[in-house]
Amino acid sequence: MGADRGTVAYMSDLPPDSPLVRRPLDADALEQALVSPTSWWREVRVVPETASTNADLAALARAGAPEGTLLTTDHQTAGRGRLDRSWEMPPESAVAVSVLVHPRNIEGHRWTWLPLLTGLAAVAAARQAGVKAMLKWPNDLVVDDRKLGGILVERVDTPTGPAAVVGCGINVSVTPEEIDVPNATSLTHEGSPTAERTGLVSEFARAFEALYSAWIKAAGDPQAGVRDSYERVSATLGREVSVLYPDGSTLEGTAVGLDDSGRLQVRHGDEVTAISAGDVTHLRTSA
User: Fold this and answer.
1) Domain limits of the chain?
2) Cβ–Cβ < 8 Å for 273, 251
3) pLDDT of 183-216, one tens digit each?
4) How does pLDDT run across 151-171, given as a tens digit for each residue?
5) Best CATH choice for the domain 8-231 from the list 3.50.50.60, 3.30.70.970, 3.30.930.10, 3.40.640.10
6) Is 108 exposed, middle or buried (0-12, 13-18, 19+ CB in 10 A)?
7) Which fold, 237-282?
8) Most-buried pick from 24, 226, 270, 277 (CB within 10 A)?
């Protein structure tokens, strides 16, 4: 998302503590907050600019980086979302963060919970900033159907086995004029008085660590709290939806739940279909 470099962010008449003032991430503060001998986090990397945090972390993973490596940036220039959509941002206006995980003892069909689990961490960060975000299945962070952010999880082969790079992007101070995606929004546009990027990355990381650790301890069983937590903040369940499949066909019905693999269950007539891939559109406001 995004376009021109921000004008609002660098206006001289903004107070220094305004959330619209754009500042570099505080790498030392993130390191101090997250990495310790007893922490799950092993390394925090902050880069001034990159094309894609996911691509960078995947390269580090293939070179042997450990689980618990976090990579973030002040300016992502060629980020990617689901279905190969682009995700861009003006400098210092959004959170772009990627995390390396090695869920080796989790059955492969349960890895599909990773983007949903990551969404819960994004919701926690947004709500800590005062914005009541919810999740549109499978990977969008929304406020009243306006897109606040997104998630992309990619599998990568490493020297110690298969792993996943978990990417999350959240619009922080980007303005409507800077967003070239219809119906998109940001934390400050939604009224957040405390949308500060270093704190948001830290909050996301802490929430992710807690959720991921619990999921691993439960051997990936969604009954151990992840599914219930997701359903409580879902903007999709109970809605009339249209699903556009990769082959161009569509399905319309009511989103009624998630199955054990995190697939969206859509009721149409007397049948319920589990959706594993497709572009979901909300057709009307939930009851």
Assistant:
1) 8-231, 237-282
2) yes
3) 899 999 999 988 899 999 999 999 999 999 999 9
4) 999 999 999 999 999 999 999
5) 3.30.930.10
6) exposed
7) SH3 type barrels. (2.30.30)
8) 226
The 10s digit of each residue's pLDDT in 70-96 is: 999 999 997 665 545 556 678 999 999
Average pLDDT of the chain is 89
SS (H, E, C) 130-156: CCCCEEECCCEEEECCEEEEEEEEEEE
In SS3 terms, 169-194 reads as EEECCCCHHHCCCCCECCCCCCCCCC
Residue 41 tokens read as: 């986090």
202: tokens are: 């830290």
Q: Are 153 and 164 in contact (CB under 8 A)?
A: yes
- Report how far residue 49's alpha carbon sits from residue 273's, in angstroms, rounded to the nearest whole number: 42
Indicate the DSSP class of residue 223: T
Asked if 41 contacts 68 with a C-beta cutoff of 8 angstroms, the reply is yes
**149: β partners:** 141, 170
